[in-house]
Amino acid sequence: MSKKTAxxxxxxxxxxxxxxISNSIARKSTAIVPSDYLLHAQDYPLYGCWIMASWQxxxxxxxxxxxxxGPDRVMCAVYMVDLYCLGIKDVFVKMDYSLNRFERDLPQFxxxxxxxxxxxxAHEIIYGALEYAAKLGFQPxxxxxxxxxxxxLDPPDAHPHLDHVSFGKDGKPFFVAGPYDNQQKIKxxxxxxxxxxxxxxxxxVAGLG
Length: 209
Known about the structure:
alpha+beta, 2 domains, five-stranded antiparallel β-sheet, 32% helix, elongated, disordered N terminus
């Protein structure tokens, strides 16, 4: 005999596939406390990846990587990527984020109309920028490690390179000083480029006063 709800209506069983997904998420949610979600981020299915619409022309783009944390919750990381020189310029991670709020904030994360991209492209941009910057002598923003933003990503060799991303501009590193870069930061970047690339082998735009 079928069980009935409090209103006297027969309860409808969840479709088998949805039930499996819900049970899988429930097992993960009860296995760890919220503060540990990030440590297990790679165990959660990818919800999606997004980039800025004009990323190929700007040389600077946010890359958003989100994972399904629960039936209506996501965890996400936003990486500000400088493809011309510095790699990961900034990053922040958000946990236990409602889907509604995430969808509402996504345009702000991408600084424009967000474009959904493949996980392969997102990883190629992030890991490629990290590798390019490291060759030039630059480490990612300190929050990349402090906030464990690397744990939101799949391993570097998990996805094939599509060769859709080039780094530097016109074959050279190109440093564009940001509005919050002080003279000490600008001097450090230029001195580093002179040491790693050689005078005349990079370009820059910076107001040195």
